[in-house]
Specification:
The chain is built from 18 helices and eleven strands. Helix 9 links the parallel strand 7 (209-212) and strand 8 (245-248). Helix 5 runs parallel beside helix 7 and helix 7 (151-171) packs parallel to helix 8 (191-204). With 399 residues, it is an alpha/beta fold. The longest helix is centred in the middle third of the chain and has 21 residues, at 151-171. 43% of the residues lie in helices and 10% in strands. The strands form two sheets. Strands 1, 2, 3, 4, 5, 6, 7, 8 and 9 form a nine-stranded parallel β-sheet that branches. It has a two-stranded antiparallel ribbon with strand order 10-11. Mean pLDDT is 87; it is low at 1-7, 220-225 and 374-399. 50% of the residues are buried. It binds flavin mononucleotide. Residues 46-51, 71-72, 102, 130, 132-133, 184, 212, 229, 248-251, 271-274, 385, 387, 390 line the site of flavin mononucleotide. InterPro entries: Aldolase_TIM, DUS-like_FMN-bd. Pfam families: Dus. Residues 45-308 form the DUS-like FMN-binding domain.
């Protein structure tokens, strides 16, 4: 990692986050108090469209993750449509906290309305503005990473969300937890620009900042996505921020977690793609040695949280799946059962259930860690994460 990082001399940058004023000090103190109230989490699961549903979050928590995110929820859709809102059932209940609900959008009014509605469910501890999505759909609406190009609008979005959440918090029943306003950004090549944006978002009322240490362009395709996240950029933000900072990028193993804390000084570390396929390598609270066992644990969580067949299919089949290719080769019947899940139909039509799948995984022969070493086209080859723009190449031979 060290060779991809470039030294940044912060003393040459004249950027203020107004941390010296009384108002800023009180504001930041409140942010830290909220962070402490949710247990000062260190280990985070990234928001992942198509993947970070309740079952996966509960699985990661069982393995040691301390805070999770919903996938990005479209703020305008959530504000306008009860049917769309119903798609985001918080079926993990108390086992799925603390939880951040992530919103995508660039319209302050829609973001404020969606923030109020999702806070009112009583199922989340923070509402986050997505300022990291690099895809074409985000470009069209000036949202996600494209919102970083328009700091005035980004500030207006955070202010609107913060006002909605302040109103929610003021009216909540005694003893109900506060819902914080948080934000996830990428970085610019120009670190001064990133620091200025981070400071502006903090001043606007953001209470926690997750920094994905890649530029928008690094997330845009196979050719350029070979770039690793730059932890020096994240350290620069952490050194200037008055609120908790979470580092995101490059974390695939517990050793990466430790290295990331060391390199960035961040308050927490977030894993995305790494924890999709081998969450037990990132979160190590329980000794789980094989993906066979992780897949079975995921099926348990799917049963407990009423995951849909399609959600289970996403996690058990495919390039970023919990099931190794080696396991599928050993169990052709399992392959057929998993194939039948790729539908919008209910469990009754699939010929199986999450509980039955859990048993099949548990009955597979113990691979003794072979799955992690198997040459099943998983090592160092380009990974298509199934999400169009979110692609990267793992050069690290440990993956
Ligand atoms: C399939 C997929 C879906 C993603 N969905 C979201 C999302 O909904 N919101 C978001 O802020 N980032 C999203 N991301 C980005 C991740 O949250 C994370 O920032 C990125 O993968 C970098 O972390 P990593 O190096 O640990 O993978 C997604 C990434 C992937 C691979």
């Amino acid at each position: 990692m060290a060779e991809v990082l470039t030294a940044i001399d912060l003393t040459k940058l004249h950027i203020s986050n107004d941390a010296t004023t009384d108002a800023a000090a009180a504001r930041n103190e409140a942010a830290w108090a909220w962070y402490a109230s949710i247990g000062s989490p260190k280990l985070f699961v990234a928001p992942l469209v198509g993947y970070s549903e309740p079952a996966f979050r509960v699985l990661c928590r069982t393995l040691g993750a301390q805070c999770c995110s919903t996938p990005m929820i479209d703020a305008a859709g959530y504000a306008a449509s009860p049917r769309y809102r119903a798609e985001y059932a918080f079926s993990g209940g108390a086992a799925d906290r603390p939880l951040t609900a992530q919103l995508g959008g660039s319209d302050p009014a829609a973001l404020a309305r969606a923030a109020a509605l999702v806070a009112a469910t009583g199922h989340c501890d923070a509402v986050e503005l997505n300022m990291g999505c690099p895809q074409r759909c985000a470009k069209k609406t000036g949202s996600g990473a494209f919102l970083m190009e328009d700091p005035a609008r980004a500030v207006a979005c955070i202010k609107a969300m913060r006002a909605a959440l302040d109103a929610h918090n003021a009216g909540r029943p005694a003893g109900a937890p506060k819902v914080a306003c948080v934000v996830k950004i990428r970085c610019f090549d120009d670190v001064a620009r990133t620091l200025a944006l981070a400071a502006a978002l903090e001043r606007a009322g953001a209470e926690m900042l997750t920094v994905h240490g890649r530029t928008r362009h690094a997330g845009g395709g196979r050719r350029t996505a070979a770039q690793l996240a730059n932890w020096d950029w994240i350290r620069a933000v952490k050194e200037r921020a008055g609120i908790p900072v979470i580092s995101n990028g490059n974390v695939r193993h517990a050793a990466d977690v430790a290295a990331c804390f060391e390199a960035t000084g961040a308050d927490g570390v977030m894993s995305g793609v790494g924890c999709l396929r081998r969450p037990h390598a990132v979160f190590t609270a329980r000794a789980v040695s094989s993906r066979r066992d992780v897949a079975a644990m995921y099926c348990d969580a799917a049963a407990a949280t009423s995951a849909t067949p399609r959600q289970v299919h996403a996690h058990l089949v495919g390039k970023l799946a919990l099931t190794s290719a080696a396991a599928l080769r050993r169990a052709p019947d399992l392959r057929a059962l998993l194939g039948a899940l790729d539908t919008a139909h209910p469990w009754a039509t699939t010929g199986t259930t999450p509980a039955a799948l859990a048993k099949i995984f548990r009955d597979l022969p113990d691979d003794g860690g072979d799955d992690d070493r198997a040459s099943d086209d998983e090592h160092g080859t380009p990974v298509d994460d199934g999400c169009g723009g979110w692609q990267k190449v793992w050069r690290d031979k440990r993956f």
